[in-house]
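Honest question from a wet-lab person: if I give you the sequences of every part of a complex, can you actually get the arrangement of the whole thing, not just the pieces? Trying it with mine:
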Amino acid sequence: MDSINKLINIFRNFPTVGPRTASRFVYYLLKLPKQDVDELIFAIHELKNKVKLCVSCFNPFEPFDTAQGRPAGELCPICSDNSRNKNLLCVVEKESDLLSLENTKKFIGLYFILGGAVATMRKEDVSQLRLEELKNRVKENSFSEIIIALNPTPEGKATSVLIESAIKETAKPPAPKITHLAKGIPVGGELEYADEETLESALEGRK
Amino acid sequence: MDSINKLINIFRNFPTVGPRTASRFVYYLLKLPKQDVDELIFAIHELKNKVKLCVSCFNPFEPFDTAQGRPAGELCPICSDNSRNKNLLCVVEKESDLLSLENTKKFIGLYFILGGAVATMRKEDVSQLRLEELKNRVKENSFSEIIIALNPTPEGKATSVLIESAIKETAKPPAPKITHLAKGIPVGGELEYADEETLESALEGRK
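Yes, you can. This is the full assembly:
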């Protein structure tokens, strides 16, 4: 296979990328000045060498420089930020969900990245989740509230049930309050385009 | 800026990629085994070092191995394929359009990649196109037919007019027949969803 098709095949494995987009990426790189391509390669190197997962929430982050003899931190900037409310935990499926919530600047607690959501309770599916890590986190801390912020999809719902019972099993008394994100009409959305389940949730959650 | 955000910013410049997709790419790379990341970097290196543009149609291609003392070819596999009809030229906007047409396996002529389409006749826009290269190609060959296969968009239409007159100016007699791709209802499409212009074209082109 020539290098064009080899790279197209690699890009096809990127999330959301189909064969057409993959070849557009390759044509884009072909036209890109050498300096920009070098920068891309350097940034990928840096990403793989410098970034690690926070031992507490599993968010990827870049530890502080160790040049000054300080040991690299094991905790991400959110987990090591003393101004945040450490009694509040928000469980999300993936890194980008954490980012979306952070961007609202309205959540001052801590996070836990579960690593996905599962449609079935089969062992091989469930083992993909950081369920044991979540249990340990809950066991070792006394949260007053745990927000389950998984997607309102069938997988998200099934996984919510799973982790809710896992939390109840492991949490030390007093048991943390377990809450879920509100479901309803998205802001700017219109009733006539909302599906029945969303409308039902919007009605139930009215206040 | 940390390496996560640096790489997100680089990916945001890729075609069709927004901030959300860019961060998904970065999280994907973070999870990818080191070996696969090395393969990606190697493939990008190979692409930039091995691929060159065909001097005739400007399609990127990988010249044959020069290990056996043969000079690397200046022509892509399509342009150097003697079984193709060299009297037939098809002008497309970009590389992926060439690929789409090749995938039909119904076109046996040669191509010319114009490098885009322009909305205005401003000099700085027009200079982005390979207009001089197209003129030279037309001057040095005697095509019996030139198919203008630009997109049926406003830019494509404006550019078609431009290159049609450029071809007429430069082509040696006998003048090549200039044709355009048919416009109409896409196969599998439905009349009720077609816009007026498409329907008009479909009516005009009926046979």
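Two things worth pointing out. Chain B touches chain A through 40 residues (CB under 8 Å). The longest strand of chain B covers residues 88-92.
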